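Subject: for your reference before the review

Hello V.,

The reviewers asked for a structural picture of the protein, and I figured it would be easier to keep everything in one thread rather than splitting it across files. Below is the amino acid sequence we used in the manuscript, unchanged from the supplementary table.
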Amino acid sequence: MRLNYDNSKLFSIGLDGVLACFTIKDNDPISKQKLQNQPTVQLSEEILIEKQRQDQLVTAINALKEEIENQKKSANQQLEQEVN
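And here is what came back from the structure prediction:
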C-alpha cells in the first residue's frame, strides 16, 4: 500500500494483480488549510510503456514507412512504363 504525495489517495495492489485506488477524506480543518497552499501536480496525458516495447513499435513504424515508400516507387515505375 502507498499514499500519494498529498495523502489524498491510497493505492493498494493485491497478489492477484488488482490495483485499488481509494480516496482519503480528512475532516481535520488544519490539514486542509495546509494543503491549500501546496503546489498541485498536473496529470499527464501520456501512456507509459516500457522502453523495449517503444523500440519495437518505432522499428515497426519505420519498417512500414519504408514499405510505403517502396510501394510508391514501384507504382510510379509501373505508371512510367505504361505511359511509354
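For the response letter, the relevant points are probably these. The chain has a mean pLDDT of 84. Residues 3 and 10 are 5 Å apart (CA to CA).

Happy to draft the paragraph if you're swamped.

O.
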